[in-house]
Amino acid sequence: MEVSFDETEEGDAAVLVVRGEVDLSSAPQLRQRLLGLATGGPRTVVVDLTGVSFIDSTGLGVLVSALKRLRAEGGDLRLAVDRPQIAKVLEITGLDTVFLVAPTVEEAARR
Amino acid sequence: MRGLASQPEPAGDPTDRVVLVLPPRPELLAVARLAAAAVASQAGLSLEEIEDLRLAVDELCSRFLPPAIAAPGDQPGGAPTAPPLRVELRFAPGWLEARCRLEGPPGSVGGPGSRRERVWGGEARALSDRILDALVDEHGADEGGGGAWLRLTHRSGPPS
């Protein structure tokens, strides 16, 4: 399954909408998109994973790298997650305590 | 990694086996996931277990595959060529074992985690270990049968 991306805004936050499956094959595309959003000063980026049906450790590693980069510059990376399987992966890796995770983009951007 | 000797195989020989030999391309990981889900379904596992095993088999196979981008230290001209990836899935009611390895000679380019960790760093490997620890009963490395295998087993019910 292919992965696709859209970029939008929610308040002051940049939103990266991801759809499809994020694995070793598609993680480089996710990394490039996040690199593009992480430049240009401190900002909040919300990654919308509500359309993602699968994510593995490579995809999670990309999100962690982007989080570190953004926080080092005074920004943040937040996740919108509503699928139980994606929430479970975040929970078992402990990343649910590292990222701000909300069920919708609006909530993630507002907090 | 969890020990591999503590969980006995199901009684009798679980002779149902599916073997995949895949070109070592990241975009073909989806094929291994699809096969894992189909075999887990045939083993009578629950929907949640099927999803778990899709992810676990992806994690196992990913360790052998070269990422689709250059790693620090790669020679000019792109990533080195890796041999085909062999994935074996054995199953019986309520039980599944997945094994994978590269079909090339031991020590060939692209062994478990080599380029992957140069590209993504140790973070992805640590996350992968946590995922496997949580989702399957056992996982680890075996020697023999043509080189180093990575293996996982899952028995129906919560991981022990």
Automatic annotation (TrEMBL), chain A:
InterPro entries in UniProt: Anti-sigma_ant, STAS_dom, STAS_dom_sf
Pfam families assigned: STAS
Record-annotated STAS domain positions: 3-111
UniProt-listed PANTHER family: ANTI-SIGMA FACTOR ANTAGONIST TM_1081-RELATED (PTHR33495:SF2), ANTI-SIGMA FACTOR ANTAGONIST TM_1081-RELATED-RELATED (PTHR33495)
Family: Belongs to the anti-sigma-factor antagonist family.
Name recorded for this polypeptide: Anti-sigma factor antagonist
Source species: Aciditerrimonas ferrireducens
